[in-house]
Amino acid sequence: MINVLAACGAGVNSSHQIKSAIEEEMSNRGYQVQADAVMIKDITEELISKYDIFTPISTPDVGFKINIPIVEAGPILYRIPAMSRPVFDNLEEAIKGLNK
Residue 75 contacts by C-beta under 8 Å, 6 or more apart in sequence? Predict the structure, then answer.
């Protein structure tokens, strides 16, 4: 199981849309992915250490080094395949790089 952390400013709408889209698309591509959605301000080193990949809308400055792959997922929100496909492709490459 690949654990993904999705994040947005409020942790309510956008991150949940990203979470759902990632779980659906990665399942369609044959990966077992579990995503969680949070507010950017709630991210701590301890929290992020529990995940394999971080998918924020855009890369935030959280005040510490993030040691897992980061895939900016904002374009997923447009629901335009030409914009979201590269995000999903980057996410798939990150998953392959985990060797899980």
Answer: 83, 84, 86, 87
SS3 of the chain: helix, strand, coil, percent, to 5: 45, 20, 35
Q: Which of 79, 61, 83, 82 is nearest to 70 (CA)?
A: 61
State pLDDT tens for residues 46-73.
999 999 999 999 888 899 999 999 999 9
Query: Could you tell me the pTM of the whole model?
Result: 0.93
Question: Rounded distance, CA 22 to CA 91, Å?
Answer: 9
Q: Residue 10 is part of a domain; what is its CATH number?
A: 3.40.50.2300
For 12, the domain range is 2-98
First to last CA, the chain: 8
